[in-house]
Amino acid sequence: MAEHLKPIIEALIFASPEPLPEKTLLKLLEGEPKEDVEAALALLKQDYERPGGLQLVEVAGGYQIVTRPELHEYVRRLFHERTSQKLSVQALETLAVIAYKQPITAPEITEIRGSNASGVLNTLIGRKLIKIVGRKAVVGRPFMYSTTREFLDKFGLNDISDLPKVEDLADVLGFDPPSLDSEPTATPLAFDFDDSPEGGSMESGATDDASADATSAEEATAEDVIVEEANVEDASAEEVASTDEEAASVEDASEETDDADRENLVRDGEPSS
């Protein structure tokens, strides 16, 4: 039963522009038993193990039919393609750090490499070898970077677990990569308080001090208000007393004027001698 599925699977894998996952194969061959599809795939793998110009590889989580690496030069001549621009040493170093430490932020990459990586990150994003996968919950909330499926495809890896060991990187890259053993430090956010009892007591003490200061300030304000009201009452009493004194003075002056007028009238009424 699996034999008739083998050419169908071969055609699907060959026609697919990207590595074709087994899950997609099962979906395309809906109605066929899963055991038959897997058996046909195993037979196809055996066929491509023979010497020839093509090979069936498992890369980036799927299957792909590609030319053998040793024939690359001849295939390139056919399409008159220029040799793709190689990544710089700085880009390869940064890519290695991201691959082994992902997800990782730009400051953490800089800490490991010892130099700014912002320009290199833009290059790797442009090549679709890395991508932004979120923000890290630290001060500034920097972007976190991880490798892409394109990265797996370009480097012939089926999964990140297929990466060579760190100690073998020098042979793979052709130079000594930055140390990947150290863990980058992260500055915690302002609200990441210490949960220890000592830390808690310090926070509690600070809160108590603040409450005490606020209470003292309120009491002082109340006293100032009482003193100010007392001063206003005293000033009002003084103004009233002053007003009463002025009224009394005016009344006395009026009485004196009336007495003087009466004396003048009496004098005017007396006969002259």
The gist of it:
This protein is mainly alpha-helical and 273 residues long.
Structural class: mainly alpha
Helix content: 55-70%
Shape: elongated
CATH superfamily of the largest domain: Winged helix-like DNA-binding domain superfamily/Winged helix DNA-binding domain
What's the rounded overall pLDDT mean?
Answer: 74
**Uncertain regions spanning at least 5 consecutive residues:** 187-212, 268-273
Strand order of the largest sheet: 3-5-4
In whole angstroms, how far apart are the ends?
170 Å
- CATH fold node name of the largest domain: Arc Repressor Mutant, subunit A
Instruction: Give Rg in angstroms.
Output: 47 Å
Question: What is the count of distinct domains?
Answer: 3
Topology as H/E string? HHHEEHHEHHEEHHH
Number of strands: 5
Helix count?
10
User: How much β-strand is present in the residues?
Assistant: 5-15%
CATH class descriptor of the largest domain: Mainly Alpha
Strand count, sense and closure of the main sheet?
A: 3 strands, antiparallel
CATH second-level architecture of the largest domain: Orthogonal Bundle
What does this structure look like?
The strands form 2 sheets. The protein has a 3-stranded antiparallel β-sheet. Strands 1-2 form a two-stranded antiparallel ribbon. The protein starts with 5 loop residues before the first helix and ends with a helix. The protein is 56% helix and 9% strand. The chain is mainly alpha-helical and 273 residues long. The protein has 3 domains: 77 residues, Orthogonal Bundle (Arc Repressor Mutant, subunit A), CATH 1.10.10; 85 residues, Arc Repressor Mutant, subunit A; 80 residues. The C terminus is likely disordered. Strand 4 and strand 5 form a beta hairpin. It is elongated, with a radius of gyration of 47 Å. The longest helix is centred in the last third of the chain and has 73 residues. It contains 10 helices and 5 strands.
